[in-house]
Each structure stands twice: as structure tokens, then as C-alpha cells.
Amino acid sequence: MGNSVTMPESPQISHGIVPGARVTLHFALALADGTPIDSNFDKAPATFVMGDGSLLPGFEQALLGAVSGQRIDVLLPPEQSFGLGNADNVQVLPRRRFAALLANSTDPVGEGTVLSFTDTGGFEIPGVVKSIDEDTLVVDFNHPLAGREIRFNAHILAVLAPGVQAMEIR
What mean pLDDT comes out for the span 143-162? Predict the structure, then answer.
């Protein structure tokens, strides 16, 4: 009873990934030097509709035209992955605002520590401590992977053309 098979209701399986196609894949992200960032190769595959916002545009661009069974391996520049760092997102904050946090010896704060902040809309945003001196903390609110080349590997498992419905039979 634990087995499941996904069958298309129609034989119209897409020849390649296009906007609106339903894609199932395994993927891995790594830094340019091979340091792993994320992967689902040892987990269940991901399924999404191309263009639904699940992937950043550069990752989607790398997948366009790929077919079921194809493997993708591409090194994306920062502009096509998590973007370039923005100097305006690096803030110099007064150290006194963090006195209690810095005094905590159980969970010390230092360079590289990720702190959680709340923006004016009430949303939580992470900031990475870049430096601490006698008077200030420098906190970077850029995405931690901004400015980095990202290796994107994917194994396309299934591609269904836009508008094709699938049902799961158990």
C-alpha cells in the first residue's frame, strides 16, 4: 500500500521544460569550490510549475528546454543566482543596543553569527555579524549567498506539458 505511481491522464508529455510545465527533479546547490549548500538527491524529489516563483529566474533559465532524464550542471554567476551584494544592506549599529546579547556567554555572538531582526513591517529578517568593535556592530542584511557563484546540478525526473493533469494511483 505504500507504493505510488503518478500517471498522466493524457499522453501529452512535454518534450522539454517550458513556462507552465510541471517539473519533478532532484537538485543540488554548491559554492564554486564544491562546498555543498543544499541538496535533495538523498530525499524526495521536488515538484513545481515552471514560472511559479519556486525557483530564482537564473535557476529556471538553466532548466528551460531540458527533458526528462537530462542532467544539468551549470555554474551561475551571482547576477543569475542570489544577486550581487548591496552595500546599502550593510548596517553599522551601536554596540550598546546589543549589550545583553554580547554579554551572553552561553551562546556567544561573534563574526559570522546570524542574528534575527524585525523590519518595520513586522517581518523577521536575518543579519550576519561582520565585525564587532568597542562602539559598533557591522551587520550584513544581504542574502548570505549574495555575490557568490553557485553550482546548480539537477536531474530532471519528469516534465508534464502545461495544462496536462496528473493523478496519483495508490
Answer: 94
